[in-house]
Amino acid sequence: MPIFDELTTRAAMMAALLFVVPLLVQxxxxxxxxxxxxxLLALALGIAGAFLAVQAVPAPPQPWGxxxxxxxxxxxxxxxxxxxxxxxxxxxxx
Length: 94
What we know:
The structure is a single chain. By secondary structure, this protein is mainly α. The protein has one domain (2-89). Helix content is 78%, strand content 0%. It is built from four helices and no strands. The protein has helices at residues 2-30, 38-56, 64-79, 81-89.
């Protein structure tokens, strides 16, 4: 079943992004990114990674809205919904 293989490949790419997005966020924090902007970077990387995963596999086209939602899920899963929202809305005092 070729369609099943292509969708499985897309799902594997999304699962790999769950490890890549936090890694890239940690690297950028080590390069000077403040904790306040780390959740937003994770969301942007998640959305970009979802679009790349959809374009890389020649499976049936996925609507762009579903791709954005997949990217948001990737970004939120990589930072943790509660801790990312807390760090963005209520930055620690200096």
